[in-house]
Write a structure and sequence with these properties.
The protein has a single domain, classed as Ferritin, core subunit, four-helix bundle (Ferritin, Up-down Bundle). It has five helices and no strands.
């Protein structure tokens, strides 16, 4: 069974920082392993391209986390949480459904990816603040770069949803 932030020793803010960084590391590695499959399942070329671009960013997020761990004197451990793992499993399940209308699948992919991004945005915001409070200025700056990229990806998904979700309405309109 995977350990979670709740099962780590919490004797200091640094302990909490390390635990949360381990969860982020696991989520980023897991995302990297499934993002191409999700991009392949997208009917929209623009959604597929957006997901592939984020896959490239995700690789950069992992490299940044490695640098952050180095600065704080810790080694990354993949501490996967039920939350991020479950969201990624939901996204993979949606992507693998062949009997779902393609526009509806795209809308579902966007929704699930945004749930994951919102979790990552909250987590990166916390660890950046904690790193800053603990005096890890370089780590805080690295984490801020990732936080900015995660926010930009989420905003891009929202913009895509504004147009792609209209396509998911069409099958409904045709059935009336």
């Amino acid at each position: 069974m995977a350990t979670t932030i709740a099962t780590h020793p919490m004797n200091s803010l640094r302990d909490l920082l390390v635990a949360q960084l381990n969860e982020l590391y696991a989520a980023e590695v897991h995302s990297e392993s499934v993002m191409a499959k999700i991009a392949d399942a997208a009917a929209s070329a623009k959604l597929s391209e957006t997901l592939r671009n984020h896959l490239t960013e995700t690789k950069g997020h992992i490299a940044r986390l490695d640098r952050v761990f180095g600065e704080i004197g810790s080694k990354p451990k993949k501490t996967e949480t039920h939350g991020s793992k479950g969201i990624l499993e939901d996204c993979t399940a949606i992507a693998s459904k062949s009997k779902i209308e393609p526009h509806v699948r795209d809308a579902a992919i966007i929704a699930v990816m945004q749930r994951l991004e919102h979790d990552e945005i909250a987590s990166y915001g916390c660890v950046r603040t904690w790193a800053n409070l603990l005096g890890y200025q370089t780590a805080a700056a690295e984490l801020m770069k990732t936080l900015t990229e995660e926010r930009r990806f989420d905003e891009g998904l929202s913009r895509l949803a504004e147009t792609l979700n209209k396509g998911a309405l069409e099958p409904m309109a045709a059935a009336r």
